[in-house]
Amino acid sequence: MTLPAKWTAQEPWTDEQVIARVLSGDAPVFELLMRRHNERVYRAVRSILKDEAEAEDTMQAAYLHAFAHLGEFEARATFATWLTRIAVHEALARKKRGLRTAPDEGAFDLLETRGRGPEEETSDRERRAILTRAIDALPEHFRIVFILRQVQELSIEETSRVLGLREETVKTRLHRARALLRRTLLEQLEPQGVLPFHAPRCDRVVAGVLRRIAA
Predict the structure, then answer these.
(1) Could you say which of 64, 138, 166, 173 has the lowest number of CB atoms within 10 Å?
(2) How far is residue 198's CA from residue 195's CA, in Å, rounded to a whole number?
(3) What are the b/e assignments for 16-46, b being 16+ CB within 10 Å?
(4) Tens digits of per-residue pLDDT, 35-64?
């Protein structure tokens, strides 16, 4: 079988099939798992650290941990849930160690606005900036639940597994996060557009992990 020059999230294998290939010695196929789950992992990590450079470093550390322990994945939860839990734990550990967690000004100024007029682009930037600042201002235990559940669209069950919380606790924190965000006109904005994970960042994270795996 000839391998493509760069894996994409559209390859027709399930996560479990990709994992089996990696465990059988086909390590480069791990790139497919990264590209498939990069946005989810980024949003989870970024919701904790609130720093772009630190988020990318944490993503790489989480992927390397997942790669090293891939044989321990038992499919009792989805791979996405298992991976997100690793990323969340890595981010929380880094924050506890006192690494950079200050907000990065202008972190979300890069928007996918091709085909939009200047006024629409400005409006998009302003709307997303308002919502992003509001989310960053949430207490951490509310913020991460909101990102995983509302932005990333994990189920209540998946969110509770990732964070190790009771489902009722997830529901309560999500409700309180929404109430706080209403103060910044949340109902007028689309939360799915927050924390975009653009292609250059995706390539950078994937390349960093693959270099370290190869070494």
Answers:
(1) 166
(2) 9
(3) eebbeebeeeeeebbbbbbbbbbbbbbbbbb
(4) 999 998 998 998 888 788 889 999 999 999
